[in-house]
Please model this.
Amino acid sequence: MMTEDTPDQELTEDEKQLFGQLLCEDQNQLTDFDEARRNFLKQITLAGGGILALQMFGKETFAGSLHEPLNAELPVNLENSVNVSFKVNGIKKSLDVDSRMTLLDTLRERLQLTGSKKGCDHGQCGACTVIVDGKRVLSCLTLAASCTNKSVTTIEGLAKNGELHPMQASFLKHDGFQCGYCTPGQICSAVALMGEARNGEVSYVTPNVRIKAAPIQLSEEEIRERMSGNICRCGAYPNIVDAIKEVHSAKPVAQNWNLVDQKELTEI
Amino acid sequence: MSDLNKSIGQAINRIDGLLKVTGAATYATDYVLKNTVHAVIFKSTIAAGKIKDIETGEAEKAPGVLAVITHKNAPKLNEKGGVRGGALLQSQNIEWYGQHIGLVVAETFEQARYATRLIKVSYEKAEPKVDFEKHKKEAIAPKDNHDAIRGDVDTAFGNAEFKIEAVYETPIEHHNPMETHSTIAFWEGDKVTLYNGSQIVNGAQGAAASTLGIPSANVRIVTPFIGGGFGSKGGQWANLVLAAVAAKAVNRPVKLALTRQQMFNSVGLRQRNHQRMRLAATKDGKLTVLAHETTTHCAIDNEFVEPCGDCSKVMYEVPNSLISYRVVPMNIIIPTYTRGPGKSTGSFALESAIDELAYQLRMDPIEFRLKNEPAKDPSNGKQWSSRTTVQCLQEGAKAFGWGKRKIEPRQNQQGEYLIGYGVACGTYPARQQNSSAIVKLTRKGNDVKATIELAASDLGTGTNTIIAQTASDALGLAVNKITVKIGDSSLPPAAGSVGSVGAASFSNAVNDACEKITDELMKKSTKQFFVRPTVANLMVSENLTAFETRADAKAPADATNYSSHSFNANFAEVWVNSLTGMVKVKRFLAVTGAGKILNPKTARSQIIGGNVWGIGMALTEESILDPRWGNFVTRSLADYHVPSNLDIGTIDTIFIDEKDTIPNKLGVKGIGEVGIVGVAAAVANAIFNATGKRVRDLPITPDKLL
Amino acid sequence: MRPFKYSASTTINSAAQLLSANPNARILAGGTNILDLMKEDVERPDELVDINRLNLSVVKPITEGVNKGGISIGGLGKNAETANHPLIRQNFPLLTQAILAGASAQIRNMATNGGNLNQRTRCPYFYEVSMPCNKREPGTGCGAREGINRMHAIFGWSESCVAVHPSDMCVALAALDAVVKVQGSSGKVRSIPFAEYHRLPGEMPEKDNTLQHGEVVTSIEIPKNNFASKSYYLKVRDRASYAFALVSVAAAIEMNGSGIKQAWLALGGVAHKPWRAFEAERFLAGKAATADNFRQAAEMEMKQAKALEHNGFKIELGTRAIVLALTRAMNGGTA
Model:
């Protein structure tokens, strides 16, 4: 009953059916995996249906009209103010911060980039992971003051031109989350991990660190170890590993939900 | 109906997934409100006694500070208003270490956090009761739980040839959702809006209103996204109300997020359980005795007992049975519902003991369970609405390769690893609770869309998605034509996402509302229908641009005449390093019979999540108190070990596709809780099979296997 | 976190001067430990001197001096870059493994080599300011001595302090006989043998190491060795990853024909400093590389251990971990 990986599978039957519902377009288009995904996501975004409306519901109904957005500058005098000029998602930012302010709080409280999450504020969960100068780091243990001239990429900066980053699309497909709170950190971490694998970087579970190879193929165990700095309390780990495996290998990873009906059972 | 009408049962992606993978999903503190200021709570550093004085002067003078609120100046609140655990700054009394004793509000988070360090508190200390080992003998029968006795346990146990008597210990655990309990509060006149992760939206509204002493209508809870809860956001805790108090005090929106360290003594916990088990069986494997006696602790002045004996009540046919609870009030924060409350911890004791007895009989533990399968619910004699334990065990055994397992331990070694297989069963009750839903239809030309509204919640369970799927089928509209609005107390009242009632309650309410709106539209129409029309047809044919209705759904009247449960069987393959004692669960299989599976993708994720929790319970999670002072020494995510990615191996799930419409019309039983039940026992049983070592106190850390 | 002045330096001299001028100033390098402790109010500097712009992150061969032929790693090199540097992976895989056994990928991208040496204990009594702790506040007592001490020391502890040093990297550096180079405001460079860098607590647990205020770790020199193909870093912990060690072992063996010429062994998670297992090393010199000899060596070392109330298991676990680490080292450093 355990289904096996089917490497040539492009889309699940369930997905095709969903595409049928959502796309209202020629199903013949859905041959190339990536393209299908991108079309699919574009359509979702443009559909004006459930998801977009939900987004409106979250962002606008409650906060938007009632309360104007904050300016990047605070209306209070800061002690030990430090000016920091850096790039966030490709856009230059310059602001004065309290020397005590972390990069995480700066993103969330000053730049309205609330995608990065505070899970522990002490470097013990990974929810605040962002990419600084190409490396995944913890924004909760980074002082904003120390970020001058650096380039920060957050979850909000991964999608380009209305298209999701492949890692975002893969997390969506593989249900690599439940509550979604650790997800921005997981995805930023996974995106940077792809670069580490390309560079041939090793991990504690790499059998022989003296062997040099770049890029390296990550086993499931390697993905697990390298993603262990991102805690997911909902326990989405197996799905996270599948999502990353799919992007890393550029091959679809099968999704197994096994339903056994009563008829099948009587044959036992 | 058209082919589109088969959304239920499809593994569609979460409709809110796009928001979650782009960082656009808005959790409580993600709302950007102008002029928001920040509150930080400070806490007691003794576990019992009184505050002599709190000096706040230095903090009040610190830059940016707007207010310091303590029991000296806090407004009068209703302490019986439904907030769990007190700590509402109403008196000098201290009942546990880390009780809230005040908060600072300042312009910035940095300023507020710093000012809390300037507070000086003097105490009149009392001797705290925090050492469970020392105080467990003082435990008394709880008010709400009566001993359930059948037959004569003592005599039957005394006479039995094959029997097990053992104590199983489970430690204090913490929910630790990734989002700490956080609130933004703002007042408009006498009305307060609270952005707050709440598993029970209306519950939070009622508790906040009653505690603040204002009408429910003046409190609005907004909670479209919740960063995990696992029971800790089911009841409401003081931080929700204190945010409102602070916002009132400074007349600005206030953001209050508990720190991770504060989470350990602010929002409940899973209590420590000392479970004494006595099981006896005949030589041919018929159970004759099952006694499950739990001793635990609760708050000094407030009782809460995890129902550890629940699985023991219903899992096996046994003539002599005793289920009892004893509880000792202690200076520890009140325990609360934690994933699989009672069943997860209780099933560790029960299913370990079953495994021990099966081994004593040298009988396969699956065979032993099958021999004691009850035809009716042994606790009340009711018929099962359906029961899938046998299918779960048989299907699981086949899929897992159980046949390869040897009854004798230590038979499977590869290099330095000892490999073992374990099995354990679980169950969780299925219920539908009252929920209302509004469906609103709009039409532009031939394009008909629906909005579904109810005060449900989605803490990662997939509520948004299954509501859209249910409405899609019932209305004959594609999923992308449906907008789901939940997580707002201004919507029609609904059940909470607790106790595995959410999916059944929400989907049936939505289904009822959608059927009702179709009926109402048909009634409006003068046409004759031979086939039930879709709402789109009706809106067009009646030339309506908008139409809405509301349904108030209840469980079927005869549901309580039956015993309805989800059931599972869990299979674990562990690799134990024979030298270091480190354990890896390489392979895990959960077979679940949980009625209609609305969305296999999200359902599978839920089960996997429960399994990961169970593996954490088995191997890594433990909150340790210093018995002298009552503080948790494991007060961070570095010290409290939630499983990491590397701790988890392959997890497979199988669902038994049941059609049981007795508990509710759609036949939905719920999966959030059952996924953890039996998991820890399956792992512990596998460790026994691998090593020959029976560990009865969780978690099974390396030191216990040396 | 108390208010503090943020200063950024671009030269060692200016950094050292800023630090020397203010006894309450602290270094900001990777920040992973200092910010954590400042948020907990354990560290209360009124000035942070950001040294990240100093040019101290180079990994290079040592071409002169006693460690000629070895490799020097910069004090400000990131842990992850150090672990993955080709020279380190090839010549000191033990160090690579040890670094990668610690923390998480994100933290290793931030944390510096010097900072790893200077990180403070994770003892929960040290971290919670309402608890007694002689290391944080001398004279208040040791909360762990009679408290919950499962994670604490079995070697070299004192009545004042039973905390352990949390580093993995340092355990490997101890086994590798590294030398720490530090420089203060005088401009003079001091060389500190690794075994003397960290301290045992004695009556002064507030001092973790022999670095003086105002000094910066400029580099760490690792002498050449002949055991790159026979070394292994083993970490035993409560969680498979992202957890501090119950016990860890850095093991390396240089063979002489069929016998052991010399073994290098250091333990983590057992003392206030990385614990060099000299007893075991002495025993193994000249012996055959057998499981029996590994066990005897390990038991000999562990005889000096003194358990606290909750950590007695570390003695047996440490013994087994030494045997396993030596075995894996003999197998070419793979699990």
About this structure: The two ends of chain C are 43 Å apart (CA to CA). The first helix of chain C runs from residue 12 to 21. DSSP finds 13 helices and twelve strands in chain C.
